[in-house]
Design goal:
single chain; about 350 residues; Rossmann fold; eight-stranded mixed β-sheet; three-stranded antiparallel β-sheet; 17 helices; about 15% strand
């Protein structure tokens, strides 16, 4: 008689491989849902697929098939044949949701991101950045040449940082300082949350002109124009002096070790004796496997920008080379997989 336990294990293994192979299709299903505005058209009450199709300007039968796929992915719920509503997860694809991830989905399913992944094997063999080969320029220069894509990237980063912004102001002793500079702070979402929670602080957001494009609107929305200044610059050249704390969220992982050292060294050059650098990034374990998102992010850095996720030892080394000493490494469980790396 066949060994049913072995057979079950074999089927589970096969199912895992099939699901992973279909992963890019699931991502493009998300992209189609966002582009067709499915979450906001469906809503949280059961709605017939035919009505959704009319509202989206789509054909009824293909729309029904899309809605069923979204239900299988856990983003919609099918109440009766061809009648759907949005699940709590699916609601995050509605731009009107306060915790929307619409721009994040658009950006990470964007051909500019995805195409380089087709050459992951080449990047693994050579260590070269696949994006540069595919597009003939580096990722951030490509963004600068395409303002709409740059704005989408900024919006995606704002959505990606929102969870961290909700917990970071209360997870670190910002009260020790009077001013904080967010190095590569984009549209200012993270620093705005810190300043709002600590009225005694003033702030500076440093980024490229493209990176800062949406920052005035963010500061205006939070009533922080008087307490926060925007500095267009290049952290590979310099970092503005005057702050006791230099904050970096998801910046160093974009760059090689030598480039990370350059950024940190510029912070070190303007750091007062009692100042600190606060790095907010995932910390890879030394040997055990990290979570799936962090591992995939590590490969994304490889193929698209040339950076990498780092272990505690890696962070200590790049800080040491920049003249800094890591004084603490603390997990941020409410915003996993991020950690706080403090350096003096």
């Amino acid at each position: 008689m066949p060994n049913t336990d072995v057979r079950a294990a074999d089927m589970a293994d096969r199912d895992l491989i099939v699901r992973l192979a279909f992963g890019s299709m699931a991502a493009q299903t998300l992209r189609a849902a966002v582009r067709l505005k499915v979450p906001e058209l469906v809503g949280d009450k059961p709605r017939p697929a035919a009505e959704v199709a009319v509202a989206a300007g789509a054909e009824p039968q293909p729309m029904t098939r899309l809605l069923r796929a979204l239900a299988a992915l856990g983003l919609l719920r099918e109440h009766a044949p061809d009648s759907f509503s949005v699940t709590p997860a699916g609601a995050l694809l509605d731009p009107a949701h306060p915790e929307s991830l619409t721009s994040f989905v658009r950006m990470f399913t964007e051909p500019a991101i995805v195409r380089a992944w087709e050459h992951l094997d080449s990047s693994v063999r050579t260590g070269d950045i696949a994006f540069d080969t595919v597009f003939g320029t580096d990722f951030f220069s490509h963004l600068a040449q395409h303002p709409e894509l740059s704005a989408e990237f900024n919006a995606a980063m704002s959505q990606a940082v929102s969870e961290t912004a909700a917990v970071l102001p209360y997870a670190f002793d910002f009260g020790r300082f009077t001013s904080v500079t967010d190095v590569g702070g984009g549209d200012g979402t993270l620093l705005a949350a810190v300043l709002a929670a600590h009225p005694g602080l003033t702030g500076v957001v440093l980024d490229t002109t493209e990176g800062l494009a949406q920052a005035p609107r963010t500061l205006e929305r939070h009533g922080l124009r008087e307490r926060c200044s925007l500095v267009a610059g290049d952290f590979f050249r310099s970092v503005p002096a005057g702050s006791g704390l230099y904050l970096m969220k998801s910046i160093l992982h974009d760059w090689t070790d030598d480039q990370a050292v350059t950024i940190l060294r510029h912070c070190r050059e303007v750091l007062p004796p009692d100042g600190r650098v606060l790095i907010v990034e995932p910390v890879l374990p030394e040997s055990a496997t990290a979570d799936e998102v962090t591992c995939l992010s590590d490969l994304n850095m490889l193929v698209n920008v040339g950076g990498r996720e780092r272990t505690r030892e890696d962070f200590e080394e790049v800080c040491r080379r920049a003249g800094l000493t890591v004084t603490s490494v603390t997990p941020l469980p409410e915003a996993a997989p991020f950690w706080l790396i403090e350096a003096a």
